[in-house]
Structure formats: C-alpha cells, structure tokens
C-alpha cells in the first residue's frame, strides 16, 4: 500500500521514566518496545508498536518482519475502510439525486396529465374533472 514499513524504534521502556504512560508501563511490567511506520499510498499515516513484558530485551529481525507484515495489513485495512466510506457517501449522494429527480419527474408528469385533460376537455366541449393523481 505504499512504502515499506520502517523500524522506528526498539528500546527499553523502563529506562524512560519521563514517558507520560510510564506508571502504566511499570504496573503491567512492560519493558521493551518495537515500532514500525505505517504507510498508505506512500504517505506516513502513523506507526504500530509491540511491547514485551518481563526482562528488557532487543527485538530480532524476525520480529521486525512480523510487525512490518502486520503494519502492511493494517494500512491495507485502513485503505479499504476509507474506500468503503467514500463509496457509502457516493451512494448516499446518488440516492438523494435520484429522489430529487424522481420528485421532479412526478411533478412534470402531473402537469402533463393536467394539460392533456384540459386540452381534451376543450376539444370535446365537456368539463374536465381534476386529475386526482
């Protein structure tokens, strides 16, 4: 869906005591983190991270590859969700246009029926009853 995910980090969480969520990380014994970028059509749209518990550690190439694959799938899912939303909006707009046009055509048909009845009445010399629809 664009560019290849790029590793953003692999670091030991417990060494970063100034992180806003440090207390949460500590409570759940989150020790190490790995992150990769998330691309959509060549544009960076975010990142995805995995966190390990227990002893601090470095993530290996296989784990980077796994997380990169997950990032690709997430980008594809986001792309599909956006396309679905665009289609839904287009469908709603088309339905509104069809409803408006249908109303316009019904009104035009009603006017034509009335005009035909009126002309037919004039030719025959008989009064014409209003068209009730």
Give me some keywords for this one.
single chain; 133 residues; alpha+beta; Beta-Lactamase; three-stranded antiparallel sheet; 2 helices; 3 strands; 53% helix; 21% strand
Low-pLDDT sequence parts: none
Biggest sheet descriptor: 3 strands, antiparallel
Order of helices and strands: EHEEH
**What is the molecular shape?**
rod-shaped
The CATH level-2 architecture of the domain at 7-78 is identified as: 2-Layer Sandwich
Structural commentary:
With about 130 residues, this protein is of the alpha+beta class. The chain has a domain at about 5-80: 2-Layer Sandwich (Beta-Lactamase). The protein is about 55% helix and about 20% strand. A hairpin with a 2-residue loop joins β2 (about 30-40) and β3 (about 45-55). The protein is rod-shaped. The model has no long low-confidence stretch (mean pLDDT about 85).
Concise synopsis of the structure shown:
This protein has helices spanning 22-27, 61-124, and strands at 7-12, 30-40, 43-53. It has 133 residues and is α+β, with helices and mostly antiparallel strands.
